[in-house]
Design brief:
- The protein is mainly beta.
- The protein is built from no helices and 22 strands.
- The strands form 4 sheets. Strands 1, 2, 4, 5, 7, 8, 10, 12, 14, 15, 17, 18, 20 and 21 form a 14-stranded parallel beta sheet that branches. It has a 3-stranded parallel beta sheet with strand order 9-11-13, with no helix packed on it.
Length: 174
């Protein structure tokens, strides 16, 4: 559990190489999980699918911070100002979560009954289902995927910019 500041100062990854399946990294309310150095990619991963849960703040101030396995996010903040935060598996969002700066969905889907507010640049690089309500005041761009499409099943409220460069973009719900 992280209750303070956990800072990745370069292009290093946190890898669980042994231990029980389903280990978890919890970034607690008020805590900061940050990548502040390096221009490459830092991954949170493991051979046994380490999960990353966030109720605090995740920051990518430099390079790319890649969350490769699932997680549950309860009213967390994801700040990609200066870098990029990428999601690569099914993530569950409960409560009000906020994206700013650069974030990308590269694999998986967004589940949960919460909400996501985006004031930055959100890149949809795959076809996916986004179940939480999505409030966009920034930019959403669909740059990847094919015919099956991306579905905003919890609805999309937009006062920013939404672009679909490829595939299908469907908005369901209110």
């Amino acid at each position: 559990n992280n209750a303070g500041t956990f800072d990745i100062l370069g292009d290093f990854s946190i890898i669980q190489s042994a231990g029980p399946a389903g280990s978890t990294f919890n970034n607690l309310a008020g805590a900061i999980f940050r990548k502040s150095g390096g221009t490459g990619t830092s991954q949170l991963t493991g051979n046994t699918a380490m999960v990353f849960n966030n109720a605090g703040t995740v920051q990518a101030l430099s390079g790319t911070l890649s969350l490769l396995n699932g997680g549950t996010h309860n009213a967390g903040t994801f700040d990609g100002n200066g870098g990029t935060i990428t999601f690569n598996s099914v993530q569950t969002f409960n409560g009000a979560n906020m994206f700013s700066g650069n974030t990308a969905l590269q694999g998986g889907a967004f589940a949960g009954a919460g909400s996501i507010g985006n004031s930055g640049s959100f890149d949809l690089q795959v076809d996916a289902s986004i179940a939480p309500s999505f409030n966009n005041t920034g930019t959403v761009t669909k740059t990847g995927g094919t015919v099956s499409g991306t579905f905003f099943n919890g609805g999309l409220s937009n006062s920013g910019t939404v672009r679909a460069n490829v595939g299908l973009l469907a908005i369901n719900g209110s």
